[in-house]
Write a structure and sequence with these properties.
Elements (H helix, E strand, L loop, with lengths): L2 H8 L2 E4 L2 H5 E11 L3 H8 L3 E2 L4 E5 L2 E5 L2 E2 L16 E4 L2 H12 L3 E11 L2 E11 L2 H23 L1
Antiparallel strand pairs: 1-8, 2-7, 2-9, 3-6, 4-5, 5-7, 8-9
């Protein structure tokens, strides 16, 4: 593997939850490592992971991601992993306490945003977020369209 391939491997998004920005108002972002098994890492390297239906919970001063589907590794026989098991996230105690305080407020939740490589390790970016109402979603979409139009008009100049 040459240097260019290593750089690409370290800076690539594996899975992105695009609907999260539309469905939720992002309040605060965090980055965490994930406790994974070997066959899960191999499946993730093959991009066989889905975080769209997943969510994050704080339990007993530990943070878990639930519903992240990592398909079974195709080249492994009988000792494959459970695709839908809960995975523990690695965070500092201060961060866990802060997240717990933020999510105890009514209407706030934790949503995964993206899964990516950083220095050869698999990391997840998630956010404490507040759900949007239907009219909020319309306003968000309208603002996005306006920003795109402004960028297009500036490019034409």
């Amino acid at each position: 593997m040459n240097l260019i391939d290593k750089i690409k491997l370290n800076n690539t998004n594996i899975a992105v939850n695009r609907k999260a920005h539309y469905e939720y108002e992002i309040l605060e972002k965090y980055e965490a490592g994930i406790v994974l098994k070997g066959s899960e890492v191999k499946s993730i390297r093959e991009n066989k992971v889905n975080i769209k239906e997943s969510y994050i919970r704080v339990r007993n001063k530990e943070v878990f991601i639930i519903g992240m589907n990592i398909s079974e590794y195709s080249h492994l026989g009988y000792s494959n992993h459970n695709p839908n098991r809960e995975k523990k996230l690695l965070l500092n105690r201060k961060e866990i306490n802060k997240i717990k305080v933020l999510t105890d407020e009514k209407g706030k939740t934790i949503v995964p945003l993206k899964l990516y490589f950083k220095k050869g390790k698999i990391k997840i970016q998630f956010a404490v977020a507040k759900g949007r109402k239907l009219w909020d979603k319309r306003d968000y979409k309208k603002n996005q369209d306006i920003e795109k139009e402004i960028k297009r008009s500036l490019k034409r100049r």
